[in-house]
Amino acid sequence: MRVIWWLLTVVSVSLLSIILSQQRALDPLENLSLRITSPTEGGLRDLADPIAQLFEGIVDRGDLVRENQRLREELERLQAEAAAYQDAALRIQELEMALGVKQGRSQDQFLAADVVAQDSSGLKRTIAIDRGTSDGVDEGMVVLSPGGSLVGTVFQSYKGFSWVRLVTDPESAVNAQVLGGSPESQGGSEARGVAVGNLRQGLVLDMLPSDSQVSEGNLVITSGLGGNYPQTLLIGSVKAVEERPQAPFKRATLEPAADLWSLETVLVLTSFRPARLVGP
Is the overall model pTM greater than 0.70, yes or no? Predict the structure, then answer.
């Protein structure tokens, strides 16, 4: 009997709720419920927003890191391409200069070579080139820059490469003459001396007659004396003159015509046979 009364009560309440809902009699209660729960819901939303923003920031930071990495890689690629382009442009320029030297000295024969190494000991001034005995390069051969000025001589030659002693090496000595530096006592001929390498000063013109009229800026060329170098190869220019009143000879420091430590291409003069190779 109790169960029947309970079922009837439940059904009656349900029917009453439906009727009241259709008549919008429960709207004030629903509005009251919303006013009570809204502050709580807003507080929960305010509390959750920083957490959501934190997760969004983490995701955005990851995207930013990946984008920065991509941009760095792109920059590195572009820099590598620019460096390769500049190197190729320099190479073309040197080859064009070498072609000009060959055309200007049509009676001579040259062999172009790439510089592949430099001596790093600080005690020598030497470079290695990628031409050797298999290419016809012999020890003692004269080496020029792409512009045609004197670089040095081959002092060691192997099958596939050779070592070149630069004119600034302490063991280098080149008979030279100064253009426009003629003393009256020599009857108008150019002043002659010996261009020797010096670790501290680079290149020094020694053994100049004391009455030589040598000035800053005078050009210095090979004299051809001794037979180890052809005549009129440009060595460099006078940078400073050392006055020594009591000494029998003058001395001057020279600026080599070629930038010896920046060379990438050189010319081996194969048609000239130095006296040291020809023999007595």
Answer: no
Answer whether 253's CB lies under 8 Å from 202's CB.
yes
More confident residue, 256 or 33: 256
| 272: number of Cβ within 10 Å | 18
CA 53 vs. chain centroid, Å, equals 47
Query: Residue 5 burial (CB < 10 Å; 0-12/13-18/19+)?
Result: exposed
Return the pLDDT at 187.
39
Tell me the longest C-alpha to C-alpha distance in the chain.
Answer: 153
Tokens of 28: 């004030």
Question: Rounded CA gap, 234 and 147, in Å?
Answer: 10
Cβ–Cβ under 8 Å, residues 227 and 210: no
Q: What Cα–Cα distance (Å) separates residue 247 from each residue in 186, 195, 242, 250, 251?
A: 18, 18, 11, 7, 10
Counting Cβ atoms within 10 Å, is residue 138 exposed (0-12), middle (13-18) or buried (19+)?
Answer: middle
d(CA 236, CA 214) in angstroms, rounded, equals 14
Residue 213: pLDDT band with limits 50, 70, 90: confident
Q: What is the DSSP letter of 190?
A: P
Q: Give the integer Cα–Cα distance in Å for 17 and 63.
A: 55
Q: How far apart are CA 171 and CA 258, in angstroms?
A: 19
Query: Alpha helices of the chain — where are they, by DSSP H?
Result: 2-22, 27-104, 275-278
Pairing of strands 202-209, 162-166: unpaired
